[in-house]
Specification:
Elements: H1 3-16, E1 22-25, E2 35-39, E3 46-50, E4 53-59, E5 68-74, E6 78-80, H2 83-90, E7 102-116, E8 119-130, E9 133-146, H3 150-153, E10 160-172, E11 190-202
Antiparallel strand pairs: 1-4, 2-3, 2-11, 3-6, 4-5, 5-7, 7-8, 8-9, 9-10, 10-11
């Protein structure tokens, strides 16, 4: 074998050992993924969840700063412990889930990226859309890459990797046209959102 050909083959083999960008699917077959929301109003603190989480994130453990993707939450999946309150929240006076069926966060870039022991912390800047209004926001996030862990979460024989995304941030409902300045004694103006969701990337 000639030297240039040998060098090319060696380079190709080395490249194959380097992790490549992987697409992680956040539609959880176990139905566990959810986003929590909390409104700490004077008279009625409200706690709820949104379970309709989907979306994809492309992540490369060797280049986490290049992470891209979008997380989507089905508006109709928002629920509180009170069915009447949930009905009002989903109605056209509040988030209008029928006209605006999706709440989305589109990742634009990661800043202040730091990685240690498989976990990356960063400031995720992107476009958050609620009730048809899109705002630029920045969210502190933690990304935990778990290679070959899919079968540990599902069942033996399911080969693949996991990516766990954690974050917490606050928005103002008035910024998204949700009854600005109204009912603030019962519905806080600020909405705290917390997520800890798992994406999977099966391997053949």
């Amino acid at each position: 074998m000639k030297l240039p050909l040998l060098f090319t083959a060696s380079l190709a083999f080395a490249s194959s050992l380097v992790a490549a960008p992987t697409v992680f699917d956040f539609k959880d077959p176990k139905g566990v993924n959810a986003v929590q929301f909390y409104l700490d109003s004077l008279l009625e603190p409200i706690v709820g969840t949104a379970s309709g989480v989907t979306g994809e994130i492309t992540f490369d453990p060797d280049a986490p700063a290049a992470t891209t993707g979008t997380i989507v939450v089905a508006s109709s999946s928002l629920k509180t412990s009170n069915s009447t309150m949930t009905e009002h929240m989903l109605g056209d006076g509040w988030i209008d889930a029928t006209a605006h069926p999706e709440i989305t966060f589109e990742l634009v870039k990661l800043d202040n990226v730091k990685t240690a022991s498989g976990t990356t912390t960063a400031d995720a800047s992107g476009k958050f859309t609620l009730k048809g209004v899109t705002k630029d926001i920045t969210v502190p996030v933690k990304l935990t890459y778990l290679p070959d862990a899919l079968e540990k979460r599902t069942k033996p024989g399911n080969k693949g990797d996991l990516l766990v995304v954690r974050g917490e941030f606050t928005i103002n409902r008035a910024d998204y046209g949700i009854k600005p300045g109204q009912n603030e004694d019962k519905v806080a103006s600020e909405i705290k959102l917390t997520l800890a969701i798992v994406g999977s990337a099966p391997k053949a």
